Amino acid sequence: MKFSQILIPTTKETPNDASLPSHIYLIRAGFIQGYSSGLYNMLPLGKIVLDKVRAIVKEELDNAGAMEVSLGFVTPSSFWKDSGRIDKYGKELLKFEDRHGAEFVLSATNEESMVNLVKGSIKSYKNLPINLYQINLKFRDEIRPRFGLMRGREFLMKDAYSFHVDSDDMIREFNLMEATYSKIFTRLGLDFRIVEADSGAIGGSGSKEFMILADSGEDTIKVCSSCNYGANVEVETGEVCPKCGDALNETKGIEAGHIFQLGTQYSDALDAKFLDNNGKAQPFVMGTYGIGVSRLLAGIIEQNHDDKGCIWTKESAPFSVNIIISNIKKEEEVAEATKLYNELKAKGIDVLLDDRKDRFGAKIKDFELIGIPTAVIFGKKLSDGLVEVVERRTLEKSEVSVDNLLNEVLKRV
Ligand SMILES: [Zn+2]
Prior knowledge:
With 413 residues, the chain is α+β, with helices and mostly antiparallel strands. It has helices spanning 21-28, 44-63, 77-83, 86-89, 111-119, 167-187, 265-269, 293-303, 331-346, 360-370, 405-412, and strands at 32-36, 39-42, 67-68, 74-76, 95-97, 103-106, 130-139, 154-164, 192-196, 206-213, 219-224, 230-232, 248-263, 273-275, 281-283, 285-292, 305-306, 309-310, 321-325, 351-354, 374-378, 386-391, 397-401. It has 2 domains: 3-306, Bira Bifunctional Protein, Domain 2 (BirA Bifunctional Protein, domain 2, 2-Layer Sandwich), CATH 3.30.930.10; 321-412, Anticodon-binding domain (Rossmann fold, 3-Layer(aba) Sandwich). Strands 3, 7, 8, 9, 10, 11, 12, 13 and 16 form a 9-stranded mixed sheet that branches. A 5-stranded mixed sheet has the order 20-19-21-22-23, sandwiched between helices.
């Protein structure tokens, strides 16, 4: 894409209410735009990243045998009354009435809706197990929305729900989801830990959180220095690892995923049963699995930034390469940059061509702020057959011959 044709409203101004790097940089680099407390528009760059992250989540879940559905955002309050959660969730649920006085809530999570969906469509053990997921908007009326996408009121969440004949099979799926989430977080280039967690308002017998390690994280976790054990401090944890006996160290994490062994609490409450192989009615045994998809954008930046701006990881970056034309009035610069742009596009690489009439300094500042992994700069040395390649993470520069440029760039993406 051409910079001159996309809406990327970069700014030097730090928003008044922003303290976290991800909040500051996602706004300053033109990824998102706040319009009301805890509510954000996704601008073109934000939408590109969100779609990339969403695609990775979908691909790995589909590979694991889960199936995507899309539930309505507006849910009858009766669903939440039947499960007994309407009071437990309290004011975080946004409630309203339609013109006939019927009560509704905006979906904050969808256990009830999904149980009703399955109750209406699965009657026999022969159709089990099944794992259904959606990547949809959620709304939680946070008392103090803050930190941008980290704790917004409206957000994009992947929520999956699995249904089983017994708890052994549910635990098998729980373990499969743990492995699947690990693949997703690894592909996103994140440094993360899986920790034992409290099940909170969702309920159930066992749960694990996926924590992105970052100094700004709201959760304190204890991680083992020797093995992969970790636990949220809200869970009973000692000073030594229960797995291997080595010391546990305290660190900060951002919760970006949470998986639960639910059991039958929702099936019991909503009277959702199937016929087992003896023809006897049994409640579905459930698991549920969430990923904060829009929160991941903030999590990636909390872990990957410097004092100049964002540093996107390879699979999350809005573009892989940022081609910069130093001076748009120089015909040779424009011609060579456009040539590389077309060659990379032909190879299927996402590339941004900075063809604006702006000063060179402003273009470099925007490259550092937006955080595309690699920049290729067509400038003064082009007359000697040289261009400059810059790695965003290290800001390391190297001169590359124009003749060898395509190969050099391809090596880095
Ligand atoms: Zn250990």
